[in-house]
Amino acid sequence: MDSFTDAHIVTMAVKSLLYEVSLSPKPGLVDRFNTGAHHDMDLTLFIDSSLSLIPYFEAYLEAGNRHHGPLPLLFDRARVIGVDAEKGMFEATNGTNTHKGANFSFALVLVALGYYRGQTEKRGLLTATDSQKVLTLIKEMCHDCVMADFASIDQTKKLSYGEKLYCEYGLTGIRGEAASGYQTLQDLLLPALRGYITQFGQEEAFLRALVLLMSEVEDGNIIHRGGIKAWETIKEECLTVTVQNLATEEFYQWLTDYDQELIKRHLSPGGSADLLALGYFFMQLEGLI
């Protein structure tokens, strides 16, 4: 495509959420085959949640398009829109948290992309360098603010689960990812996907990328359900499979078996899934899917 309109980009973002939840089989996660380690959500709920975010995705992108001035002010604007987006999501899901983390990340990516397009007049496909520059803008937007939030966390009366993890273990979660400019995407996920898609095709590429993320990512969802030890065990198990580079049939069988294992353990790598959705978004922007 020679040029992307804002409507095209918003559609890509929503498709990214739908592609991620539809990818199957995903260990411990909601997919087309089962509800994973979840009893309060299913595929249709994720579809409803994804569609509820459309007007807010539009607002994020427009805010980036229109922004002039210091980038931290754009972060503040994204936060304001994000509060309304979260309310809209919870209304669509009757209070179930389907996309809280994804909403936070897509807010930052979309405002940064809108700003980048406005500053560079880039309207077509992104290169790998463009993608990196968009992610680096996120670091410029929110690094200082996020770090200030962490520094003053002892003054917070009611801590979120992520804030408790920071206090207890020094884990920074998705806010730490954002403050780094999504270094996991820049250094791990996007380079891996560019190679996997060529080697394996779209579905298998993203499944292998998910396992790669599970071997590396600081996943608050897993830690919340099973603790630090459970998270470290999953990382070790997924690293072993990644290094083995199983043939396609063996890999799919392992995924199927591991899905049942994580369901038994009641563990779900939701943090990795949120990052994978961003991978879908950038691969569309780069024209690779």
UniProtKB/TrEMBL annotation:
Annotated PANTHER family: 2-(5''-TRIPHOSPHORIBOSYL)-3'-DEPHOSPHOCOENZYME-A SYNTHASE, TRIPHOSPHORIBOSYL-DEPHOSPHO-COA SYNTHASE
GO terms for MF: glycosyltransferase activity; triphosphoribosyl-dephospho-CoA synthase activity
Gene3D superfamilies assigned: Triphosphoribosyl-dephospho-CoA protein
InterPro entries: CitG (IPR002736), TriPribosyl-deP-CoA_syn_CitG (IPR017551)
Catalytic activity: 3'-dephospho-CoA + ATP = 2'-(5''-triphospho-alpha-D-ribosyl)-3'-dephospho-CoA + adenine
Broad enzyme group: transferase
Keywords: ATP-binding, Glycosyltransferase, Nucleotide-binding, Transferase
EC number(s) reported in the record: 2.4.2.52
Name of the featured protein: Probable 2-(5''-triphosphoribosyl)-3'-dephosphocoenzyme-A synthase
Cross-referenced NCBIfam families: citrate_citG
Family affiliation: Belongs to the CitG/MdcB family.
